[in-house]
């Protein structure tokens, strides 16, 4: 295969893979869901995987058993590698086979590997000859022009998606920081109440010891402590309210990319900020349910 053929193969099978994912999601959820990693109608993992299979397994086309075995091994490795790299780069697990028997790290499992193997045999034997002939009908100049346009669109899409995911991760981190500060404020309020109570008890003990001599001074000190405590409490409560408002605003206004990704990958799990991630998912689910009812 030439570079020209490889690029066309990538875009064709990336698009067909996206179509299959969308069709599967529509069957399960009865609605359209863009199941791709990117915004556009393409799944790069399908484009890369099928292109590698088609390019490297042509010598085995005449032997169905060998073709199936090598296809299964190859696509299993590619799926594992893709899942591993995506998790390392973006700190999220995009799909999870942990509940499937004999899975490897949750990235791959025998059932889906077997399905991918069958799909690859069908592609190599039936679909690839058709798409290869289809591409050959295009004038070279037109084919190159289309590849340039598609490549530019793909690069732009990748940049937008990566930027959106990084912003999403940053938002989760900020939400976690706010939640930690709110917990610290809560602890400080509790400590202030405890300290005030202990000061009052100590003052009461001193009062019993000296009776009328220092009663007036103790009352004054107690009032000063109460005023100081009230000022500290009011300040902490105001700060807590500001943080709570900011947290709720961030949770209720997720970006377009984060909304799409959360819907496209329902089993995606973060390595960090699990609580905040779960809250965003619940909010988006609630909004979708409200839209369905209206």
Considering the chains and any ligands shown, give keywords for the structure:
single chain; 294 residues; mainly alpha; 2 domains; two-stranded antiparallel ribbon; 2 strands; 80% helix
Structure description:
The chain folds into two domains: 3-137, no CATH class; 169-257. It has a two-stranded antiparallel sheet. It has helices at 3-29, 44-56, 64-90, 110-136, 140-210, 212-252, 256-264, 274-293, and strands at residues 92-93, 269-270. With 294 residues, the chain is mostly helical. The longest helix is centred in the middle third of the chain and has 71 residues, at 140-210. It is built from eight helices and two strands, in the order αααβααααβα. Helix content is 80%, strand content 1%. The mean pLDDT is 79. Helix 5 runs antiparallel to helix 6 (212-252).
Run of helices and strands: HHHEHHHHEH
Count of discrete structural domains: 2
Helix content: over 70%
Main sheet specs? 2 strands, antiparallel
Strands, count:
2
What coarse outline follows from CA principal-axis ratios? Answer: elongated
Number of helices: 8
Distance between the termini: 53 Å
Radius of gyration: 30 Å
Low-pLDDT regions? none
Biggest sheet strand order reads 1-2
Strand content: under 5%
- Structure classification: mainly alpha
**Mean pLDDT metric:** 79
